[in-house]
Amino acid sequence: MTFAGQRVVITGASRDFGRTLAIRFARRGAEVFVSSRSLAASRRVADEIRDLGHTQVHALVCDLSDPASVRRFAADVAQRTDRVDVLVNNGARWLGGPDLLSATDEDVIDTVAAGATGTILVVKRLLPLLLASDRPDIVNMISAAGLPAHQRSDAHDAFYAAKSAQAGFADILSTRLRPRGVRVISLYPPDFSNPDPLSPEWESTPRGSGDMLTAHSVAECVFFALGQPRDCFIKAFHFEQACG
Hints:
Blueprint: E1 7-10, H1 16-27, E2 31-36, H2 39-51, E3 57-61, H3 67-80, E4 86-89, H4 105-131, E5 137-141, H5 157-177, E6 183-188, H6 215-226, E7 236-238
Parallel strand pairs: 1-2, 1-4, 2-3, 4-5, 5-6, 6-7
Helix pairs in contact: 3-4, 4-5
């Protein structure tokens, strides 16, 4: 599917899967808005995209744990475009360690704020721009940790809490925005590998049923859902976790 002429905003896009999506959307013709906590980090990804020959890219700052930063971010996006066609809520803070006592209070607050509150505020602030699009989509990169009874991650309890809250928000958002034509698509992957999307092996490496889920496969799910006709609302992708 081509995204030529579409404007795509991605949070947490300076590294890992956010960077992967930014590069992949740009290669499919989208105008990409790259955001992260660091302007320098966002600019590095924007420069990578420009080096690939795609000039429609913007580097922005958004600290999801800071409401004032989210407001400034939304205002910066609004200065550059009159609509947003796709919003990818990818940004979140990973906090590891299965011992509740292993994290500071500040770490807990920051993790929940970035993963849960930040997602809510970004959607709230960018919703007018989404409603200005004739094909608005919101993609939420949640996690298997946001699913009930999931216990196979080494994430801290606060990360589980943040992702569970994000999942609850996505669920009600899908119901309430559907009548307004906004599709809300949520993905719940387990841990997955994220090879460099600029590597020549990105699409050619064979993968089997026993292999670990890869970013390539997760990204293809995103593009599949976005490419469906507008009467098709794919609410969620759930993935079978590899044995072991």
